[in-house]
Amino acid sequence: MGEGNNGAVRFDDQVALVVGGAQGIGKAIAIRLGREKARVIIADIDGPMMDATVREMCSEGSDARRVECDVRDSAQVQAMVKQAIEWHRRIDVLMYVAGIAPAVPFLEMNEKTWDNTLDTNLRGAFLVSRAVSPHMVARKQGRLVFMASTNCLDAEAQLGHYNASKAGLYLLAKTLARELGVHGITSNALGPGFIKTRLTEPILHDQDFMKKYDVTRGLIPLGRLGTPEDVAGPALFLASADANYVNGVLLFVDGGQLA
Ligand SMILES: NC(=O)c1ccc[n+]([C@@H]2O[C@H](COP(=O)([O-])OP(=O)(O)OC[C@H]3O[C@@H](n4cnc5c(N)ncnc54)[C@H](O)[C@@H]3O)[C@@H](O)[C@H]2O)c1
Q1: Which of 94, 100, 151 has most ligand 1 atoms within 8 Å of its beta carbon, as the pocket-test mutant?
Q2: Whose CA is nearest to atom 42 of ligand 1?
Q3: Residues lining ligand 1, judged by CB closer than 6 Å?
Q4: What's the CA-to-centroid distance between 24 and ligand 1, angstroms?
Q5: Given strand 63-68, what is the order of strands in its sheet?
Q6: I need a labelling partner for 174 at 20 to 30 A (CA). Which of 36, 60, 153, 187 fits?
Q7: Ligand 1 atom at shortest distance from the alpha carbon of 46
Q8: Mean pLDDT score of the chain
């Protein structure tokens, strides 16, 4: 099977903000949005990676810009959204993808790691969606897509802080579906399983952990780990007109791991 999308162009003239789009899953989403003619703004803490991604996108003819932003900082989030609005006057699609997942056993967990994870994965989503939503409300349309995880339902050892942040993110997405639906805005979450990116790179070398993911023993029915591109398609679906009546769902993208 190919990469998907069959040459569809679903986002012509739309403005898409991909927060956490410098690399990994966010980058794959940004690239697909650009290929489908969205005007893409990437916001991320990693300036050099963003530069490389924006260069790559522009070289294939996409309209892409970047804003450096640490989602843990409210002032930076507000400045980032202000810049996006100044450039394009509106935001049609928000993809909240920024996230971290440092593995720490619960008995060794310190407050700094806990707070940093919750601030990035959950509080950042609150800050960004709070800054973006009024612009969508004013136009009576908008798409919010939050990158949760299988971990928001399936507790994984050594990731209590991460699991809690993603469970919170899922309920935030559902709450916004309830509150903002009346304004023509949909809010949904994605639940990727095990996707090969920088975030999961350390785990790939952890023998004990990988035993659990022994794909030959059938933990993942499709028999392989996922790629960022595997997640981009479902993310764009939730932001597309095909999902006009999809609101408040969690769409797993896990090769059947939670089946
Ligand atoms: N890889 C997986 O297996 C997997 C599974 C389920 C969910 N997810 C989620 O998908 C999202 C993307 O993960 P990924 O695997 O592509 O990881 P990644 O590390 O490749 O990408 C994460 C991006 O978020 C950015 N980021 C981190 N902290 C930030 C901050 N404070 N401000 C702004 N940007 C920040 C990083 O710079 C990076 O570009 C995360 O939310 C992650 O929890 C990943």
Answers
A1: 100
A2: 99
A3: 20, 22-26, 44-46, 49, 69-72, 97-101, 120, 147, 149, 192, 194-195, 197-200
A4: 7
A5: 63-68, 39-44, 15-19, 93-96, 142-147, 185-192, 250-253
A6: 36
A7: 37
A8: 95
Q: For domain 15-252, give the fold.
A: Rossmann fold (3.40.50)
152 burial level (CB within 10 Å; 0-12, 13-18, 19+): buried
Instruction: Give CA angle at 196 (190, 197), nearest 5°.
Output: 85
Residue given tokens 């690239």 in the structure block: 31
Per residue in 38-63, pLDDT tens?
Answer: 999 999 999 999 999 999 999 999 99
Q: Is residue 95 a contact partner of residue 142, using CB atoms and an 8 Å limit?
A: no
CA 177 to chain centre: 17
Catalytic site positions: 162
Q: What dihedral angle (degrees, nearest 10) is formed by the CA atoms of 171, 175, 180, 186?
A: 30
Q: What is the DSSP letter of 91?
A: -
What atom in ligand 1 is closest to the CA of residue 119? 31
**Rounded distance between C-alpha atoms, residue 14 and residue 2, angstroms:** 25
* pTM for the full predicted model: 0.97
Ligand 1 atom nearest residue 192's Cα: 6
Give the residue carrying structure tokens 């794959």. 28
Residue 213: the pLDDT is 75
Interval 83-94: pLDDT, tens: 999 999 999 999
**pLDDT at 229 (0 to 100):** 98
- Helix 124-139 / helix 160-180 crossing angle, nearest 10 deg: 10
Q: Is 85 helix (H, G, I), strand (E, B) or coil?
A: helix
